[in-house]
Amino acid sequence: MPHRFRTIDGKIYGPGSKTPFTVSLPDGSQAEVIWGGCAQSEKLAWWLRKPDHGIAQSAQEIAAVAIEAEDTKEFIWGDAPPGAHLIWVLEPPVVSKAGNSYQLAKMVTVEASPAELAYFHDTRFALFGSLDSAGKITTIPALEPPPAKPPAQGELF
């Protein structure tokens, strides 16, 4: 599952309340959100049937995503295709115990291709695309990742 993304202006965002970012809704409006997890694309219809949930895309184009490898815990970055946005499921706004209003967004992910699995060491990858005014997703295929690093050679002697 992706753990960071970088916009084309170089800003890096990750999950949690310290890194809010802007998303665009199908009607053209924008919202400031907090990355609050992921939503599998295979379950997107279920997410969107939940009361007051909606779909959005990152307001800015995405330059790259990073995934924390499941085995090594290393952050591995991969470039995004030109013109790509990340797709998000928006939860309804809530008010914190301190009285602050915030809105969580869940990044829509897809099953990793064999090449993505080999390179990123994770079974999920970001869904790149764009939304039209009806909320329909036009998927943008991910770039083919570089070849996976060979495993470290063990001690010879």
Keywords:
157 residues; mainly beta; four-stranded antiparallel β-sheet; 8% helix
Description:
The protein has 157 residues and is mainly β. The protein is built from 2 helices and 14 strands. A hairpin with a 5-residue loop joins strand 3 and strand 4 (30-40). The chain starts with a strand and ends in an 18-residue tail after the last strand.
Structural class: mainly beta
Shape: globular
Helix content: under 10%
**How are the strands of the largest sheet arranged?**
3-4-11-8-5
Q: What does the average pLDDT come to?
A: 92
**Unreliable runs, pLDDT <50, ≥5 residues?**
none
Radius of gyration: 17 Å
Order of helices and strands: EEEEHEEEEEEEHEEE
Distance between the termini: 38 Å
Number of helices: 2
Let me know the number of strands.
14
Main beta-sheet strand count, sense and barrel state: 5 strands, mixed, barrel
Percent strand equals 35-45%
What's the layout of helices and strands?
Blueprint (H helix, E strand, L loop, with lengths): L1 E6 L4 E2 L7 E4 L5 E11 L3 H6 L4 E5 L3 E7 L6 E5 L5 E6 L3 E2 L5 E2 L1 E8 L2 H7 L3 E3 L1 E4 L5 E3 L18
Parallel strand pairs: 4-11
Antiparallel strand pairs: 1-2, 1-6, 3-4, 3-5, 5-8, 6-7, 8-11, 8-13, 9-10, 11-12, 13-14
